[in-house]
Design goal:
The chain is mainly alpha-helical and 412 residues long. The protein has 22 helices and no strands. It has helices at residues 2-19, 29-48, 50-77, 79-82, 89-94, 97-109, 112-128, 132-144, 146-152, 154-159, 162-171, 181-185, 190-211, 236-241, 247-286, 292-305, 311-326, 329-336, 347-357, 363-374, 379-386, 389-408. It comes from Ligilactobacillus pabuli. Belongs to the concentrative nucleoside transporter (CNT) (TC 2.A.41) family.
Length: 412
């Protein structure tokens, strides 16, 4: 029964994408169908086949090894905070970013990451039939994060029409940054975190092609040469002309950037948790049982139930879903990290919750994306994006719902 509900839920989420589309008649159903089948096969392969599970397990162990190496540096500076029975969340989850972010930046500096992005983007474009830049951007987000991918795509964004810029803004709601995955794997099941990432990439293309279908002509389906991006690797003259920053200067900037990222995440988590507690206290004055979690649980319950969960689990999941959208994924991960691997969560519940929270889709991300576009494109294009905030949030939510439903179908 629960599997049937899960399948129906997946269909309903796709129907919602059609109902809320800006231009239903222009949806390319063949491309959508191909992408849905590809993603279902990918979810099935990564969760149900021994070779798929092995790939995910190896990747998870790789990230865990990176984090372990990072603890060596942390222990050198702060031994009293590392050599303990239970590390504080800040030390265990955030401080490893100081090593992992520079590592990914080094891979970009020496050209490895741009090369990977270039070929994955080309393959994704051929497989899904989506415009070249949208496919490249989806892969760039997977490695670089939303604002970083936008920054290196500034030339392309300036050349594209406003509606394609909106597509990119909507896609930016659904990513996670590879350099922060190590932090996620310390809090949630690593296998499902790493399964969610490629599933989210294709679902971002599915959802945006339904909510905001845009016709891209052959003349428009081009890639501008962008400094630091995957496509810059194609331009030999750009390689010769580009003057690289000295390595250690570059590395110093990267480490400082990682430090700023840690402070931003910590500040957001502290502020959001405290504000949520304040709201709960105010609501408690109205009636003792009323809380932000209860309100969010009621609003999100129908979507949670469509994941194929028992009533009690569905209501709890709905609360986590709503809280994640209002605050961020770290708040929810921090709440369940000690129990997610226990019998308190069934395998299916564990999978759908982990996949759902593996994205940046929340209210604060909307502000970050609008702010990024404000500095990259003209006022006309920025006004189009700012005027579609609800579509941006809807896109992020639908991608998370689709990804959780797809992975959940194969984990019981």
């Amino acid at each position: 029964m629960y599997l049937a509900v899960n399948v129906v839920g997946l269909v309903i989420f796709l129907v919602l994408g059609w109902l809320l589309s800006k231009d239903r008649s222009n949806i390319k159903w063949k491309a959508v169908g191909v992408m849905v089948v590809v993603n279902l096969v990918l979810a099935w392969f990564l969760t149900s086949f021994s070779i798929g599970r092995t790939i995910v397990d190896v990747a998870a162990k790789g990230f865990n090894e990176l984090v372990s190496v990072a603890y060596t540096g942390i222990a050198f500076a702060l031994p009293s905070m590392v050599n303990v029975k239970q590390m504080d969340w800040f030390v265990q989850v955030l401080l490893p970013i100081l090593m992992i972010v520079p590592l990914f930046d080094i891979l970009t500096y020496i050209g490895v990451l741009p090369w990977i992005i270039k070929w994955l983007g080309r393959g994704l474009s051929k497989l899904t039939g989506q415009p070249r830049f949208e496919s490249f951007f989806a892969v760039e987000m997977m490695f670089l994060g939303n604002t970083e991918a936008l920054a290196v795509s500034s030339l392309q964004l300036k050349q594209m029409k406003a509606q394609r810029n909106l597509t990119i803004a909507m896609m930016s709601m659904s990513c996670v940054t590879a350099s922060i995955v190590g932090s996620y794997t310390q809090m949630m099941p690593a296998a499902y975190i790493l399964t969610a990432i490629p599933i989210n990439v294709i679902n971002a293309l599915i959802v945006t092609s339904m909510l905001n279908p845009v016709t891209v002509t052959e003349e428009e389906d081009t890639i501008a040469t962008m400094s630091g991006s995957a496509t810059a690797a194609d331009a030999e003259e750009n390689k010769e002309a580009a003057k690289k920053e000295p390595f250690f200067s570059f590395l110093g900037d990267s480490i400082l950037g990682a430090g700023r990222l840690i402070l931003i995440i910590a500040a957001n988590v502290i502020a959001f948790v405290a504000l949520a507690a304040l709201i709960d206290k105010v609501l408690g004055w109205v009636t003792p049982w009323l809380s932000l979690e209860h309100i969010l649980g009621i609003v999100m319950y129908p979507f949670a139930w469509l994941m194929g969960l028992p009533v009690n689990d569905a209501f709890q999941f709905a609360q986590f879903m709503g809280e994640k959208l209002v605050t961020n994924e770290f708040v929810v991960m921090g709440k369940v990290t000690k129990t997610i691997g226990t019998a308190a969560f069934s395998p299916h519940y564990r999978a759908v919750l982990t996949v759902f929270v593996t994205s940046f889709a929340n209210f604060s991300t909307v502000g970050m994306i609008i702010g990024a576009f404000k500095g990259l494109v003209d006022k006309e294009k920025n006004d189009v994006i700012a005027g579609n905030v609800l579509y941006m949030l809807l896109s992020g939510i639908l991608v998370s719902l689709l990804s959780a439903a797809m992975v959940g179908m194969f984990v019981w």
